[in-house]
Write a structure and sequence with these properties.
This protein has 322 residues and is an alpha+beta fold. It is built from nine helices and six strands; from the N terminus they run E-E-H-H-H-H-H-H-E-E-H-H-E-E-H. The chain is rod-shaped and about 100 Å long.
Length: 322
Amino acid sequence: MGRVYTRTGDGGTTRLGNGESVPKDSARVNLYGVIDEASSALGIARSLAAAPVAVAIMELQRELVKLMSWISLYDAGCDVISATELEGKIEAIRSIAPMPDVFVTPGESTAGGALHLARAIFRRAEREAVSLSRDEPLEPEIMKTINRMSDYVYALSVWADHEDRVTRITRAVLRRIENSGAAKGDVSLDEAEAILAAMEAKASQGGVPMAMAVCDSKGNLVAFARQDNVLPVSVGLAQRKAFTATQLKCPTSDLAAVTQPGAMLWGLQADPNLVVFGGGIPLCRGEAVHGAVGVSGGTVDEDVAVAQAGVKVWESQEDKEG
């Protein structure tokens, strides 16, 4: 295990990579020390950022290790990222997140705020680089790289804010959809049982054994009834008809024409979970789908008639609430 302290710097000096002993406040030490600060700020940002941004930050931190190695003369021949490469990374981010044309106040997202801190530290690193260049030559390409670092980190901050904004908007939209989809609640068990009773009564008039299902807005079964001697295939069909009506938000009888060869939904009938003939009807209030009924066992017309009996009960419940 490596030692945490060496005591070699207790006198206020440190050694560069070439063995030279220099004061800890010398221009070269100040420069790589500031870049080390920037990398630490990037670490905070990486821990807070969305996955794609975090990966880009990690890659940058690895490049900073090489840059600090170059500046501290430990490996003056190492391959330091160029300003041109950083510009390419900036352009790649611009294709994802539009750059604002006004001054940005840091803090829209936690990761973005941390990246702005790193950006400001890189600006200080640039000033330290200018100070060092007065005392000893500093390659122009390194100066360009340090300058472009702050630009790249600014682009990363915009990207981080963008990712956070997309996440927040997505969550808000999903909550809105969920809330609007159940403005008065999905069909309840009591409502489903009343609907089933009406459908059973209607089915009994025809003398054909039927299976009847009521599901919620997501297609999950709420209540189910099957009459004696109903065909086994009708049990699954009734539930799938109700499911189909919720997923496509329309009566399954509407799907027959549009799933014919050459029609716009041709191929939909190949989905084993969907049914494209009559017997499934959504339970709506306004434009919101709160569930659906599905009936199978008779002819298409007979199934639809029984399903409509259930829908009438649902609509009468809405009238009472109104």
